[in-house]
Amino acid sequence: MGRLIVAAVVSLTMSGCAVVAAVGGTAVEGLAYLLGGAEESFSISMRTTLVAVQKGLKKADLAVSVLEPVENGYLITFGNENLDGKVSLKKQTKSLVTVSVKVSSGGIREDSVEQALVDAIRKKSETVNRFERFDFGRYRNIREMPKISAKKVGWYLPGTFLDVHSLKDSKWLRIKMPSGKMAYLKGSIAAFTRK
Predict the structure, then answer these.
(1) How far is Cα 113 from Cα 101, in angstroms, rounded to an integer?
(2) Considering only 10-19, 28-37, 87-96, 132-141, which range has the smallest mean pLDDT?
(3) The CATH number of domain 36-125, selected from 1.10.390.10, 3.50.50.60, 3.40.50.720, 3.30.310.80
(4) What values do phi and psi take at 57, rounded to 5?
(5) Nearest to 44, CA basis, from 132, 154, 156
(6) Cβ pair 140, 158 in contact under 8 A
(7) What ranges do the domains of the chain cover?
(8) Spelled out in words, what is the top-level CATH class assigned to the domain 5-27+139-189?
(9) pTM here?
(10) Each residue of 120-172: pLDDT tens digit?
């Protein structure tokens, strides 16, 4: 069980414009990654929590790579060349959200990084104003099936590390969502691999 990073250039065509994004994949397996992690409950709304997570990751030079809505919350992945992470947001009540952060580096849990990110999220949550929303400006849709009319099941940020696989003879990529489910995004992997 370990970590696999495959990076590639992806060419995406959306609404008539071409976008080039660096895409990578990460596979972290085993119970060590699923157990543990820093966790804290905040007396704030889910909307505020989403904004605080986005801002907290940005403060650490990270970004939400994939955002997946799930029952009573969201699952989020983020990563770079050194870190792989997952954030779970669970709505307990209208004004109480539990945030769990799990981070690994080379398959080894990074508990100090987890706690630092929870602290950053807490600090950012104190500065979110009531009109702020998660910034979806650069995000693209992830679909349930490889067709544009399929149900939207999440969002990804082009240029971040993603766990994707090309579909044979298709302009779609299969992506592993934070929940482990498979979904699809429009694009193709160009021949570029980084170690």
Answers:
(1) 9
(2) 10-19
(3) 3.30.310.80
(4) -65, -40
(5) 132
(6) yes
(7) 5-27+139-189, 36-125
(8) mainly beta
(9) 0.78
(10) 999 999 999 989 999 999 999 999 999 999 999 999 999 888 888 888 878 89
